Amino acid sequence: MGAAKRPDEPAATEWPARLHVVTGKGGTGKTSVAAALALALATGGRRTLLVEVEGRQGIAQLFDTEPFPYAERHLTDAPGGGEVRALAVDAEEALLEYLDMFYKLGGAGRALRKLGAIDFATTIAPGLRDVLLTGKVKEATTRTAGQRRVYDAVVLDAPPTGRIGRFLNVTAETARLARVGPIKTQSEGVAALLRSPMTAVHVVTLLEEMPVQETVDAIDELTSLGFPVGRVIVNGTRPPLPVGRPVTPDELAGGLHAAGLPADERTVSGLAAEARDQVIRRELEDSLRTDLVELGLPMVELPLLPDGVDRAGLDRLAEALVRAD
Amino acid sequence: MPSDNVAPPLDVDRILADPGVRIVVCCGAGGVGKTTTAAALALRAAEEHGRRTVVLTIDPARRLAQSLGLTELDNTPRQVKGIDVEASGGELHAMMLDMKRTFDDVVLQHTDPAKAAEIFANPFYAAMSSTFAGTQEYMAMEKLGQLHARGEWDLIVVDTPPSRSALDFLDAPARLSRFLDGRMLRLLLAPARTGGRSMFTFVTAGFGVFSKVVQKILGAQLLTDLSGFVAALDSMFGGFRQRAEQTYRILQARETAFLLVAAPEPDAVREAAYFAGRLRDEKMPLAGLVLNRVHRPAVPDLGPDESLAAAERLAEQGGHEGTVDVLRAHAALAQQAVREQRVATRFTEAFPTVPAVSVTAQPADVHDVDGLRTIGAAISRV
């Protein structure tokens, strides 16, 4: 399991960070990309941790497994002897764990829960929830066993672009409320990690107008908050269309005839309309791709998976991510 | 035509024209065109059915907002100009939800100005009104309740927040109630109610390990702020809960129609199915499913395999490059349509009686009134 590697060596030179935060507009395939990245970074005998924080059990659904408890579990093997583990962080459990770690609560933790204190604390204390979630991610990222880190990389399936800035920036919120004490220390530790070169925030998008707009906005926000933006990951891309002059109805009718297909007017005009829509769509995609390129960030394109995201599909995405330059 | 073959057809026009329907709630996963659908339905209700309509949007795409004349978040419905309502006599108003301002209004309404000022100055309030988990959902409900209470509109179309889960919208009132009823809150309130000035009373009163831990972790300053905040809000809790429950009942009433919005992708369809189950459990009126972005070949008789085989044949033969490309593109489209239908079937199998309509994917994104009109017509195609 790569035991000879030095503890501070990144999982892959093209993906230099150790904590990979994956965000994106809803519907862009953020969870699939996060899973594929965890696979990619585990390839060749490394160990990675895939973390989700929104209680959606998206990883379990993606891999068609039982819901994950609040514990790090083996998720899947990666090509070349690697391992991906998974963790669904739950704010309440994280708080209890945290309390136990610092205050040796024992049975008192259960009493707290009975009192509704845990529910209360994670609901009312704004930002506390997110501090706990990111705190757990930080702990996993920096955890060591013996001389080396337990995980070569941690991939976080983070909240969507609309909430990512606020989620990562919990410290500002928390610092306003808790001016002293362990929560403040905890948030400062998380903030330092998230703003360090150990972290990269990747934004997943599709070549559609709204996801691209949100990507541009999110990168703006992340940059102004001081978070290191990694890559723009364009999901669901299709191979380029052959560029040629549009086919005329007569040519199309002739071609269909030659292929032994019906060449009635309905078929010809229908196919011509499909081709026209296709061209409009592709032109829009090209112009959106240009907008993304202009962001000046490293970009990687992932292929559209025609058969949906199954395990074979994830491996394809992982391969594309490994090849990213 | 995915899903249409199995599910009963959804007649959106009948819903929009029905004077008994006063609220249409569009819900579903993020990224399925929920906001666009809500805006298109509202436009159609005004233009085609002559209804005085207001659409409540939450965080719309910038260009869509601009097309509705919404240049800033001002929390007040603005009339949308430049639409075609001469014949129908309808009106369209639009607004974007301003979460913080809505919260401020609620506070002002339920308390006196001095107390309100005290609440606004508390750091907890600032944080809670902008980041409290579920605040956006709760405020969307609150705003809906307000618009409904004003009685100025024939029809209110609501777009739901892009939540972690579409269910958050339904859970907001229950979560608020649970919070308000929590024993923890009672404990925090105890000193205020007994005349104590701060949490120190609470702490020294000896609540054992818990109070010590809380003070250690959160710090005394934070507890003082929190106690002050909770005490200040205390007078408003009754009103809060009452309104949340009221809005909840409105959502259950016959005047409301829930429309699930989804795209033919596994996640979106799964989310729609969860939501359909929840609406059934909560006895809320589910009117149907709008399946957006469905790909439909213009020549359905030519299957993907046949099209691809013909393309290969023709490519070998040579001389018909243009047709080869067209046939390959058609094969890909037909393949996608088959796939999408398979995904959509998962919903209709689970909820065979829920009416559904498929909306064909547009080649380009919608961000003007003409585009919304086209979408509205496509949704209403029966």
TrEMBL record, chain A:
Pfam families in the record, alphabetically? ArsA_ATPase
Domain ArsA/GET3 Anion-transporting ATPase-like, chain residue ranges per copy: 20-175
* Gene3D superfamilies reported in the protein's UniProt record: P-loop containing nucleotide triphosphate hydrolases (3.40.50.300)
Q: Which PANTHER family match?
A: ARSENICAL PUMP-DRIVING ATPASE ARSENITE-TRANSLOCATING ATPASE, ATPASE RV3679-RELATED
What name goes with this protein? ArsA family ATPase
